[in-house]
Amino acid sequence: MTIQTKKPIIALTLGDPAGIGPEIVIDTMLNEEIHHICQPFVIGSVAILKRAAEIRGVSPQFRKINDPEEALYQLGTIDVLETGDYDTDSIKWGEVQALAGQMSYDWVMKSIELGLAKKIDAVSTAPIHKRAIKLVGVKEPGHTEIYQNETHSDYGLTMFNCHKLRVFFVSRHMSVVDACRYANKQNVLDCVIQIDKELRNIGIENPLIAVAALNPHGGDNGLFGREEIDHLIPAVEEAKAMGINATGPVPADSVFHIGKSGKYDAILSLYHDQGHIACKTLDFEKSVTITFGLPFMRSSVDHGTAFDIAGKNLANGISMIESTKVLAEYTAKYIGSKH
Predict the structure, then answer these.
(1) Distance, CA of 199 to CA of 204 (rounded, Å)
(2) Alpha carbon 163 to chain centroid distance?
(3) 281-298, pLDDT tens digit by residue?
(4) Could you tell me the sign of the dihedral formed by the alpha carbons of 22, 24, 29, 30, in that order?
(5) What is the DSSP string of 162-206?
(6) C-alpha dist (Å) from residue 49 to 124, 176, 229, 298, 330
(7) Cys-Cys link to 88, which of 47, 175, 231, 302 (CB 3.0-4.6 A)?
(8) Edge-to-edge strand order for the sheet containing 61-65?
(9) What is the C-alpha separation between 154 and 167, in angstroms, rounded?
(10) pTM above the 0.85 mark?
């Protein structure tokens, strides 16, 4: 398949204004490569961005816009779509604040509004703070759940992109005990079906999907647990019967090593840390999150608000730059596959 590409319009949400989000968004918006591969603008606050720019020692031009169509998308100029008139002077670096939670939530909701209206192609999110959004009544635990619920999507499929690794997850934020129970035949099969669909949507034909094992040595024929026999092998076999190019379960102590060579198009991790540890050990800063299954694509850095270093010019913007870069590449492939 020949993939035709165009420069996607990407909204960067500022994240919690008391965290490192404003600093790393500044870094991303002033990155020359980002402007070569996409048309970026910020959903956030000019006042907060100016404060971050001062900390970074840079002086970009800021332009307030009311719609992405008004943006210039020029390196050195940061187009900003604001969502309200906030008391930004009261925002203190590194502190959990209700106002900061409200601002970060408002910015996420604006990105959803624009995405559903087809005014943007994708969203790159800086980190929000879970406690801060709870202070203003947000029920969801994080970004992915908000995007899934507010777009009424059937699923929000999380993928880690790290060099040649594409790692998906059966479960995200739950205890290890609950995650092991959750990795049953039906849930694993559902994930494999979703992965196959989403990778085909970005132009990967007949993707090879490796399912990680749960137990040491893949259970060793039941000697170290029966989850592989009772759930994982049946899930893989049923996927194969549906025409999906699935394999496994592959012992978790080797599947990521094999995958980093590019042998697999995707690896399905059975729980949060199983895949996170592998990717972050390989390259912490370039392990970024892509969310599939929404009406538009979304990416995120894989670190938090880092309140301990916020406002001190110590934050590293590499992950935000990488997540936006990878998002632009996947979004262009997705757009191209539809033509």
Answers:
(1) 5
(2) 15
(3) 998 888 889 999 999 999
(4) positive
(5) ETTEEEEES--SS-HHHHHHH--HHHHHHHHHHHHHHHHHTT-SS
(6) 16, 39, 54, 22, 27
(7) 47
(8) 61-65, 77-81, 39-43, 9-13, 122-125, 297-300, 288-292, 157-162, 165-169, 266-269, 209-212, 246-250
(9) 20
(10) yes
